[in-house]
Fold:
Amino acid sequence: MDHSNQSLETRHHSLNKLSFDRESDMSKIFSAQSCIRSQYAYSDWFSWEAREFKGLFGVPDHLSIFWKNDARGRRIQRTFAFEMKRKHWQRALMQAYRYASFAEYSFVVLDNEYVHRALSQLDEFKKSNIGLLSIKFDGEVIWHFRPRYRLPYSKHMHTLLKEEIDSYLFSEDTARQKRRLQWVA
Structure:
């Protein structure tokens, strides 16, 4: 068998591919921060993003924190949590709802080839105030439902997250802090 032809055929197939093989493939090309900045007015805020952030009520695939100081010098913080699934929207919605215990905004991100199943139940997302996005194989993100700002439903979980973020991002160790802070204008 001619392996050079097989390689070309494999490459051609992957270029014409429409869906993802694994959730991890989706997660690798998804940028929560650029996605958020395109829809919400946080362009002049500091930001930080983590994948698979543990220690909360569930493990969001992506967690983005945006913050700035108000006129009095108090920090204002917004948390965005994302659950990614190829096609199991019901499971993703349940997980994303858990994230609303600590995040002001929570989202489900589905493979665009399978989002039609969730779109037929868009009212479930609206009732839960959980955002719905889909991602194409080329990385394009499509917004189907944009949730409203809301306080997390668990003050305890929100406080735990805030304390964890404070210790990670705002410690007295300025060298550590400089490595972790990211300004995106």
